[in-house]
Amino acid sequence: MTLEDDLQGSVARHEIEAYFQPQIDVATGEITAVEALARWRHPVQGLIPPVDFIPIAERTGIIHEIGAFMLEEGVRHAARWRRDGLSIHVSVNVSAVQLATPDVFEQLHALLGEHQLPNGTLTIEITESQVITDLADVATRLHRLRAIGLGVSLDDFGTGHSSLAQIRDLPITELKIDKSLIQENTSNGALIAVAVALLQERGVQVVAEGVETAEHLDLVQRIHCDRAQGYLFGRPVPVDELDPVLAGAQ
Ligand code: C2E
Ligand code: CA
Ligand code: CA
Ligand code: CA
């Protein structure tokens, strides 16, 4: 049996799990958001990271099941945290393949209605590389997401070849600076600071990824990112582990 065979039906067998990683507000240090990250609990091989199964899922179409499950989990927990009096924004990763089908808009519209999530509570993350290949089509789809009350985040900024000019006209609410940019610019960062300021002027929230050390956080503070995510604040964990942290923090 190959991993590809095993991945078939993995959602129905409850082998896919949503982990959540906290994001802190740089100004206050409080957890104000989380990102949902998929994990596959393989019956024989144990926990498999997304790099090893998301590409297979995208190639085989299984990403539609996995993606729908992750959106459901994201919305479900966002609603639960809200009922518990916590104000937590939830981000969910969506593949280009997923975004190219009308189903995803219908599912999101239904989920938001069912769980009564206020506008802007859920943010969809799409990667920079997915956006650039098909700019006009993607812009249309992002507008649709915005129209149903979702935030739209451009993930992994700095890993592709997109320029600020290219993303300027995209209807994004957030931009995530890739960990490579954060980790390689601790001594400088002047250029990133300019980009951050430009985006913030247009109302775009800027999130720094891969914040592992005090030096990384120092850079993030110097370039005035809005939020930060990384091992310094917490790894992706199951909700059972995150809930006590959230309850203690707010
Ligand atoms: P991503 O969306 O860029 O997610 C951030 C990744 O960076 C996560 O890896 C996270 O665990 C890792 N990370 C967080 N903080 C740090 C840090 O301080 N240092 C370092 N070195 N890494 C950090 P993960 O969970 O293995 O996910 C890898 C990628 O798989 C994600 O990158 C995303 O592109 C994809 N992925 C994960 N879940 C899903 C999903 O539900 N749907 C889709 N389409 N893709 C997903
Ligand atoms: Ca992401
Ligand atoms: Ca990223
Ligand atoms: Ca990535």
TrEMBL record:
Instruction: Output the InterPro entries linked to this UniProt entry.
Output: Cyclic-di-GMP_PDE-like, EAL_dom, EAL_sf
Q: Name one GO molecular function term.
A: cyclic-guanylate-specific phosphodiesterase activity
Q: Which domain of life is it from?
A: Bacteria
The molecule here is called: EAL domain-containing protein
One of its Pfam families is EAL
What organism does the UniProt record list as the source? Mycetocola zhujimingii
> Locate the EAL domain: which residues?
1-250
Q: Which SMART domains match?
A: EAL (SM00052)
